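Dear Dr. L.,

I hope this message finds you well. Following up on our conversation about the binding site, I have prepared a predicted three-dimensional model of the protein together with magnesium ion. For your records, I am including the exact sequence and ligand specification that went into the calculation, followed by the structure tokens. Please feel free to forward this to your student if that is useful.
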Amino acid sequence: MSHDFSIARLGEATIPSPIPYASEKGTDMANYVGDDERIIFNPALSRSASEQPVSGQSLLEVAGPRRNIYFSPGHVHAGVITCGGLCPGINDVIRAITRCLWYRYGVRRITGLRFGYPGLLPETAEPTIALDPDVVDDIHKIGGTVLGSSRGGGTRTGEIVDALERLNLNMLFTIGGDGTQKGALAIAEEIERRNLRITVVGIPKTIDNDFSFIERSFGFETAVAEAAQAVAAAHTEAHSAINGIGLVKVMGRESGFIAAHTALASHEANFVLIPEVPFSLEGDRGLLRLLERRLDARRHAVIIVAEGAGQDLLPDSSGSDASGNRKLVDIGLFLKDEISRHFADRGKPFTLKYIDPSYMIRSAVAAPTDSVYCSRLGNNAVHAAMSGRTRMLVGLVNDFFVHIPMAVAVSRRKQVDREGNLWRDVLEATHQPMQIGQG
Ligand code: ATP
Ligand code: MG
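The resulting structure of the complex is given below.
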């Protein structure tokens, strides 16, 4: 399948970049990327493709500083906004954007927009804050977002663009998940309708790692590291009790990447339950009987459950949050109750410890690998915006930083392929059957 990865631009880039560039003898600080540099989206060759390697392949634009830019740095007024849930590394991204604009391009007007899209709306407007290298100096050492975040309000596109006009912004960086980037896309379209010269560049944030077309979202490695600690604690508790059961709930509304990676990182989980793989509790091959057998054999067990797993077993919550996301019923508490009831009914002694580390994970300080990633995402977002590119996200694909059109990135989610390598490795690590119960 080929995708349209062409990137929109506000206009031609005719201004020489102020980033120092010295060829041959001097240092090459800019390492400019040519506008024609592309990578192949899917490097796997099928037999038919190998006969004609590139035709029909989707190509992605390589990110990085351009020799010519669209905006004159002295005229730039950039805004940075963060929306949606917390994720390790948001402050690192804000810091990188600010520093790259300031030091690389000499931009002096950088404004932090507070508490997400609602902070731009008339009745919930928030005062903005000026960002400079001093303000952002130490922010990567703390979790959360120094700008504040929120949900809702993102669909009031016209009023948001009014606010951007009022603030005199010509550059907007949107740090947030699928909802945020859908909002950003609508904002960019409204900007185009009004014939304004404002670029909108997104930095995709999803702790669940479920943005399609993007290899690894920032904060994901930190999340797995933190989740692995929770699993280690659950394992210790389980191991130290008679028929000890450790149950850990991790993030993953639609995709079980954190659960799968955590299981592989710790090798202590016996059951991993994710949204992509349905399971049932009852029956000879159901979770409860499998758990019972595991306890009979080894006297302790560890379960990792992603928050979106097994929702079909639960009563429909039918509620949604301010952004319109479906509210999930707590699968962790449900499992805790069902497992407890099962063993109590059988008069079998057991100890169950339920750990939900979600908020500790979301608010964690980014691990060094994520910090590196965040700063490079932030830098590349700035280079893209300065070159006049708009309606796009920065991301990592096949180890290259690339530009991805917003419309393509939000078109679908990435999920664990239950017939793929990752899930196979998880099954090998846990020894759980391919199917738990009726599935
Ligand atoms: P995460 O899900 O990782 O927390 P997110 O960006 O998806 O991040 P949401 O709360 O869903 O978080 O959305 C963030 C912002 O985007 C909110 O202000 C919301 O109103 C807005 N938004 C969500 N969906 C849309 C949409 N379809 N169109 C316009 N705006 C949207
Ligand atoms: Mg979302």
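In brief: The chain has 13 helices and 17 strands.

With kind regards,
A. P.
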